[in-house]
Amino acid sequence: MDLVLDGNGPRYMQLVRALKQAIASGRLPGGTRLPASRDLARDLVVSRTTVVAAFDQLRAEGLLTGRVGSGSYVNAPASPTQRPPVARRSVLPQSAYSRRARELHDPDDLSGRRLPGMRHAFQYALPLVNAALNTAWLRELGRAAPYVRPNYPMPQGLPSLREAICKHVTRTRGLQCTPQDILVVSGAQQAISLAARVLVDPGDDVVIEEPQYFGARTILQMHGANLIGVPVDAEGLRTDRLPNRPAKLVCLTPSHHFPTGAVLSLSRRIDVLQYARQCAGWILEDDYDGEFRQDAQPVPALQSIDRDGRVLYVGSFSKTLFPSMRLGYIVMPSGLHDDFLAAKWAADFGTPALEQAALAQLITTGAYERHLRAASKRLVERRHALCDAIVRQCGARVTLRPSHAGMHVLAEVTGLSAAEGVQLIRHARERGLGLYPATNCYLDPPDRCELLMGYGAMSTRDVREAVTLFAACLDSWALRAHGPALRLAHSR
């Protein structure tokens, strides 16, 4: 315990004053268990008698409580004497990276998070809840625990997990790879960050989809990339709008574009591969939920038709399993193998081994694929429930983008501007419904109201109830916003 004796008077009173100061400042809040008298005496280099006398004095003053067989605990003071929290000292950014990060990242941003007090929320970042999967995961963690070595994990990832991932993606996604090509990372967010470190210098041109996954965009901007937004239509990225000058990196979600749901057509896949070859650039393929193909056969990954080794394939278990697991992987082009391993080593020495070992078993035993099949079936039901309910209850007021995979749809509220969309979202939250705008998915947001409507963590009953509430919010907001004009028109 970090206590400083002031040197004035008896030792036990010095210790009493030091402990009082720690309690008053909040360093020892109510309920804190103090070290045993022998341990504290050893740490402070005083006699145990001194510590016992100090504890007795504090108990007499009501600041400590002794519990038989347990120890001494701090009592919360009757009248709080803690100092008010010290405001964070403002300093100028100490690096160009910090300056960009401050401009781009708001730690208080609630985009995509569950809001308190909501009856329903179309939160798009949450995966499907599966009690059987939770049980299987806990079982595999318990089995793996006795066999995981306590030293640092391999930076590239456990061989058992890399082999399991390799077999899975070659069979289900058509990838061309070996276990040596797999790098285990802490989720897709780290994969994108490592790609930015390895491939992008400040000022380099990077092509992104418009709209796009905002997490990738923010990371690239923090690294100083010059982003070039290329529009997306029903066939995915408009390859005819790729820049004439060479780009260092092209970031894509070709199997299920985020957020529109478009699938990149074969002809455009060939175009973008040719563009990367001509530029001597690279393609980052973010396959964040491509395994949840619901109404058709899974689309093979872009990497599966890459003949030049220029595609970095990024996969994640955040959507298919649990976001809290923080596990994902990169299928590395062979020419970048050593660079990515060095970047991963510098980032964290390696991803936690216990979770890797448990996941390897989950995949190897077939439990992971069984979960994917069951989850896909349930997601189909929820998506159909969402789309049917919106068509039935909202009619022409809401337009849905076609989507055949994943756990969300993109909806446009007809005739509403972006500013009116903000008002609608605020109104819905007042009525207990969480709505989420798509504005942050754009470099240049359009002046219309678009909503990301997630359904992965909702039951079909919840989906229908939420849509009913959504339709009611549209009605009441329209009356609030245009009621006076409607009443005036009616009176005339």
TrEMBL record:
Span list, region Disordered: 71-112
Gene3D superfamilies xrefs: Type I PLP-dependent aspartate aminotransferase-like (Major domain), Winged helix-like DNA-binding domain superfamily/Winged helix DNA-binding domain
Name of protein: GntR family transcriptional regulator
Record's compositionally biased regions (Basic and acidic residues): 100-112
Family membership noted in the UniProt record: In the C-terminal section; belongs to the class-I pyridoxal-phosphate-dependent aminotransferase family.
HTH gntR-type domain span: 9-77
Keyword DNA-binding: yes
Keywords: DNA-binding, Pyridoxal phosphate, Transcription, Transcription regulation
Species of origin: Lysobacter helvus
Record-linked PROSITE patterns: HTH_GNTR
InterPro entries tied to this protein: Aminotransferase_I/II_large, HTH_trans_reg/aminotransferase, PyrdxlP-dep_Trfase, PyrdxlP-dep_Trfase_major, Tscrpt_reg_HTH_GntR, WH-like_DNA-bd_sf, WH_DNA-bd_sf
